[in-house]
Amino acid sequence: MTRIISIADHPLDEAWPRQLARRAERGELVRIRLGCYVDAPGWRDLDEEARYRVKVDAVRRTARREPVFGGETAGLLWGLPRPALPANVEVVVPVASGRRSANGVSRLARYPDEFTVVTFGGRYVTGKVATTVELALHYDFPWAVSVMDRLLNQKPLLPESGPQPVTKDEVRNRIALLSSAPKRRRALRVLDFADGQAMYPGESLSRVQMARLGFPAPELQHEVVDHTGRSAWVDFYWKEQRLVGEFDGLGKYLKPEYLQGRTTAQAVIEEKLREDRIRSTGLQVVRWDWATAVSPGKLKALLLQAGLPCNPPARRRRLSTA
């Protein structure tokens, strides 16, 4: 964990703030917030998400009262999907509190019944259902679905030690507390489309594109059993076309949590053997990557080439306005 060095570390030492400023001038420290510094070499070794988390802790360290992190910051702390890192650290404040956004902190004015608060990692954070509903209103429809899919999925979120499943009814109850009818309608459209069988953003974004383009809805996480009795779970399955769709994100070949001790080469070989077993059952397999998932034209061409028919365009119009 990156240690934050603060002028508050030695409140009675009048020279301490000047010492920190001089060290920053020499390049030994990096100032990440007024009065908060970190070791420069260590800062350079951090990726962008890790740096953001340090800034979150710096906001907490310098706050006059314990902040409640909300919005995109809460989403990041929960491990929910996002299109990009938040620009600022977001905290929730009561409506009409008079507290303004400034110095890299965005203050989100909310009524008390619009969010719940939990603690983990020493931080106060809006609850995962309230956070997801907030993000469903903030993001565009594909990313809103991605966040909602992840919430409904059985796999624990980042700070959770075990499964703590959420039902659609629980989310509907939270949506019902929103302050305006347009917000409630928008959030419900996202919830109605969401499916907890999907978990990764590439799967969710692909599914939204399929619906917008007019393709039939796939069965998610379908089990395929080969002649030896070995099974494989596939991302997308269309029974009538005997077609399997697989989203191929780079994470499964690069990130330690997916590799689980294997090398990238081993992961690639195992994935090839898995696909061979799926094909041995007579199913056709079509794969795509992130660039295709976010490109309607590329995904449409790929699925049409695989023999998947299109649905009537009325459905496309309805989803395109969500």
Structure notes:
The chain is an alpha/beta fold and 322 residues long. The protein has a domain of 120 residues: Endonuclease, Chain A (3-Layer(aba) Sandwich). Helix content is 44%, strand content 18%. It is built from 15 helices and twelve strands. The strands form four sheets. The chain has a four-stranded mixed beta sheet, with helices on both faces. The longest helix is centred in the last third of the chain and has 16 residues.
Mean pLDDT over the full residue set: 90
Helix-strand pattern: EHEEHHEHEEEEHHHHHEEEHHHEHHH
Distance between the termini: 41 Å
Overall 3D shape:
globular
Q: Low-confidence runs (pLDDT<50, min 5 residues)?
A: none
What is the spatial order of strands in the main beta sheet?
Answer: 9-10-11-12
Question: Strand pairing plus helix content: what structural class?
Answer: alpha/beta
CATH fold group of the domain at 201-320: Endonuclease, Chain A
- Proportion of strand residues: 15-25%
CATH class of the domain at 201-320, named Alpha Beta
Radius of gyration (CA) equals 23 Å
- What helical percentage do the residues reach? 40-55%
For the secondary structure, the number of strands is: 12
Instruction: Determine the number of helices (DSSP H or I, runs of at least 4 residues).
Output: 15
CATH architecture of the domain at 201-320: 3-Layer(aba) Sandwich
